[in-house]
Here is the input.
Amino acid sequence: MPLMPKSVKYRKTQRGKIRGKATRGNSVAFGEYGIQSLEPGLITNRQIEAARVTCRHFLRGTGHVFIRLFPHKSMTATPAETRMGKGKGEPSEWVARVKPGKVMFEIGGVDFKIAQEALRRMSYKLPVRTKMVSRRM
Here is the structure.
């Protein structure tokens, strides 16, 4: 089951702009190590799930993975080979808006080297530049 909200007030949202830096969710809160965004962007529910699966596969059942973002925003798309006009397309995917500084994923219960490798593999699945942060920093 993909990550998506149970209900929303408006099915079709405007694109908008992502301005400023993250003032909340910008420090490690649940685990010991995290992966922090360095640039703004939109992360789809498929990308979140791909990163989670990659991390769980590498950790092989040890440790905990915390997902700190949720795709609340719908993105629409019109079908291929459709002429211009005819209104806004149907919702096709759900995305999470990410500001620079947002801690997106956290890992706990594993040592530094394993967490570092797991977070590095997760970062390949994400469309924004990231860096590893720790609770101790």
Q: What stands out?
A: The radius of gyration is 17 Å.
